[in-house]
Design brief:
mainly alpha; two-stranded antiparallel sheet; 11 helices; elongated
Length: 393
C-alpha cells in the first residue's frame, strides 16, 4: 500500500498499447508487430537480412562454389508466380509478348541488307551471288532482252554479214588457182585495206552501240532491284547519255588487254580479269575506273577471280557454240555466199539465228559483272541498292 495515487491510464494513440484492446486494433499507434523494424531491438528482425552475429554461413551458401548454391527450387515453384510463361513465350526479343522488328526489317540508311535484291552481303557466298543474278534476270528480262537484241545481237549480226560480203579471200583463191606463178592477186593492197577499214570502223561503231546497251541494262537491273519501275525508253535514253564515256574507257581497256595478249597470253588474261570491274566503276563512281578495278581485284583476289571466271566461262560457251554453228551453216553456201541471191539469203538467215543464240552470253556478262561489282562494294563499306541507284544518276 502507498499513499501515491495510481498512474493515469494512457489514452489510446499516445504510443503505448492499450491493455484492454487487442494488438493491431485501430487504437494502436504505430505499425503493428511485423510491419517494420523495432528500433529497440538489438538487431534486424528475422527476414530483414543476415545476422552479423550468427555463426557460420547463411543457408544456401556453397563454400565450394564461392557463392550462393544452385539448390533446386521447392517443388511447384515457378517464375513468374502465376505459373510460368505460356508455351513459346520467353523473356527475350522476338517473342510474341515482346514487340520487335519483323524479320528482314532494317532501319533506313543502315547500309546493306541481307535481303537486298542486288547487293550480295559479305558471308553470303556463291549461293547468294547466284540468287541475285537469277533474281535480276527474272525481274528484268522483259526489258533486258530487247535491249540486248538491239544493242548487242543486231550490230554484231550486221557486222558479220558485211564482213562476209566484203571478204575477198574467195576471189584471191580463184586468182591463185588460175595463175600458176606465185604472185599477189590484183588490187590486193586496196582490197585488204578496204576490208580492214570496214572491220575496224564497224567494230568501233558496234562498240559504241554496245556501250548504250551496257549502260541501259545496268539502269534496268539496278532500279528494278530497288523496286523502282523503269521503262525501255527511259533506259535507252540513259544509255545514250552515258555511252560515250563508257565507250572511251572500253576502247582503252580493250587496247591494254590486246597489248597484254601480244606479250604472251597470261598478261592479257590477267589484265582482262583485273579490269573487269572498270565498266561498272565508271557508271557508278564516274572516276578512275582502271585504278579502282585493279584495287578491287587485288584486295579480294580469290572472290573476284572466282566470280569473273564463272562469267567468262558462260560467255565463252555462249559465243563459241553459236560461232561453230554459224560455220557449219554457212559452209554449204560456198566460199562466196553472196555470189547469188539464194545463197546470200541463206547466209543472212544463218548469221541472224546464230547471233540470237548468243543472247544468253550477253545477258550473263551484263548481270554477272554488275552483281559482282555490287558485292565488291559491300566488302568495302555498307551499301545497298538504293545507294547504288542514287550513284547511277
Amino acid at each position: 500500500m502507498t499513499d501515491q495515487p495510481p498512474p493515469p491510464t494512457p489514452s489510446p494513440g499516445s504510443g503505448e498499447p492499450d491493455p484492454s484492446s487487442p494488438a493491431g486494433s485501430p487504437g494502436q499507434a504505430g505499425p503493428p508487430p511485423g510491419w517494420g523494424p523495432d528500433p529497440s531491438a538489438a538487431g534486424p528482425p528475422p527476414g530483414w537480412g543476415p545476422d552479423p552475429s550468427a555463426a557460420g554461413p547463411p543457408p544456401g551458401w556453397d563454400p565450394a562454389q564461392g557463392g550462393w548454391g544452385a539448390a533446386p527450387p521447392p517443388q511447384g515453384w515457378a517464375f513468374p508466380p502465376t505459373g510460368g510463361y505460356p508455351p513459346g513465350v520467353g523473356p527475350y526479343g522476338g517473342q510474341p509478348w515482346y514487340p520487335g522488328p519483323p524479320p528482314g526489317w532494317y532501319p533506313p540508311g543502315y547500309g546493306f541488307d541481307p535481303n537486298d535484291a542486288l547487293v550480295t552481303p559479305p558471308g553470303a557466298g556463291l549461293g547468294g551471288w547466284f540468287d541475285r543474278c537469277g533474281g535480276a534476270l527474272r525481274r528484268g528480262w522483259r526489258q533486258l532482252v530487247p535491249i540486248m537484241l538491239l544493242t548487242q545481237v543486231l550490230p554484231a549480226a550486221v557486222l558479220s554479214v558485211i564482213s562476209i560480203g566484203l571478204d575477198p579471200s574467195a576471189k584471191w583463191a580463184a586468182q591463185a588457182g588460175s595463175n600458176p606463178s606465185p604472185a599477189l592477186p590484183d588490187n590486193f593492197a586496196v582490197e585488204l585495206l578496204s576490208l580492214l577499214v570496214v572491220l575496224v570502223g564497224g567494230g568501233l561503231l558496234v562498240g559504241l552501240v554496245q556501250a548504250v546497251g551496257w549502260a541501259a541494262g545496268t539502269r534496268v537491273i539496278t532500279q528494278q532491284a530497288a523496286g523502282q519501275p523503269v521503262s525501255l525508253e527511259s533506259a535507252l535514253r540513259y544509255g545514250v547519255r552515258r555511252a560515250p564515256g563508257l565507250w572511251g574507257w572500253t576502247l582503252l581497256i580493250s587496247l591494254l588487254v590486246g597489248v597484254g595478249f601480244c606479250f604472251c597470253v597470261l598478261p592479257g588474261v590477267y589484265l582482262a580479269f583485273a579490269l573487269s570491274m572498270a565498266g561498272p566503276v565508271y557508271l557508278f563512281e564516274r572516276h578512275n575506273p582502271i585504278g579502282r578495278s585493279f584495287r578491287m581485284f587485288h584486295d579480294r583476289l580469290g572472290l573476284l577471280l572466282g566470280r569473273v571466271a564463272l562469267v567468262v566461262v558462260a560467255v565463252i560457251v555462249g559465243t563459241v557454240i553459236p560461232g561453230a554453228l554459224e560455220g557449219v551453216g554457212t559452209a554449204p553456201l560456198g566460199t562466196d555466199p553472196f555470189a547469188s541471191a539464194g545463197t546470200a539469203a541463206g547466209a543472212v538467215v544463218v548469221i541472224g539465228i546464230t547471233a540470237v543464240l548468243a543472247l544468253p552470253a550477253h545477258l550473263a556478262q551484263l548481270i554477272g559483272l554488275l552483281v559482282t561489282y555490287a558485292e565488291q562494294r559491300a566488302h568495302e563499306a555498307p551499301v545497298n541498292t538504293a545507294g547504288l541507284v542514287a550513284e547511277l544518276g
